[in-house]
Amino acid sequence: MHKIAIYNNKGGVGKSTLAVHLADALRRLDLKILLVDLDSQNDCSLFLGLEEKPEKTFFNLIDYRYPADLKECIIEIRDNLGLLTNTNYELIEKDLHRATRIDNFLDKVFEKTEEIYDYMIIDCSPSRSILNSAILFYVDSIIVPTQLEIASIRGFSDIYNYLEDLDIDSAKVKLVVPNMFDTRTKEAEDNLNELKSIFDEDMITSPINRRTKITEASKAGKTIFEYNSDTQLEQFYNIVERVIELG
């Protein structure tokens, strides 16, 4: 199982949208995917049309008093796609502070998933937190979506400083996804070129164009694959190809 974190310390860059579409695209290739929604806003759950609050979530899975079984906490939200949501985010943080070691905490939590799923995709909150630290230790790869705005691009140094503080190899950052690319503006093109000057070419994926159809699909609880077939699909599939190359 290849474990991927979708992370940026800046909000509003499309993390949850990317996580949901990547998960949906991979499961359509007959791969078994576990999408773990550990963003405090639970946007992945919203974007996949989950209307009822689950009885058991990630919080119950790690509850040291009454731990739930993994199968009780995962919702089969689509064929080949399991969803693990979260509740009580602040209590999760408090419980993790009780952990003896944070660097291998999730290895034990997700031990049973290794033989079931081909990919685990974790949507992270845009922050430095003990939960995010545990996630970044746990995953094999980090994918960073970014808006093509100069503030977002300059914020990459904060991500690398965070990894350095945790003593995590920065090589875990495998892909950078330029998101919400506005083809009509020179600023977006200039910022894309700025991004390309910072990172190796093989780290940057094709940009995802700004499209109202993606927003409409998310509000409807669907992915773009389910909502409207257009050229936007090719952009996501290009990213999927890059992810599969990671292993």
TrEMBL record:
What is an example of a Pfam family matching this protein? AAA_31
Location of the AAA domain: 1-166
Origin, by domain of life? Bacteria
Matches recorded under PANTHER family: COBYRINIC ACID AC-DIAMIDE SYNTHASE, P-LOOP CONTAINING NUCLEOSIDE TRIPHOSPHATE HYDROLASE
Q: What is this protein called?
A: Chromosome partitioning protein
Annotated organism of origin: Orenia marismortui
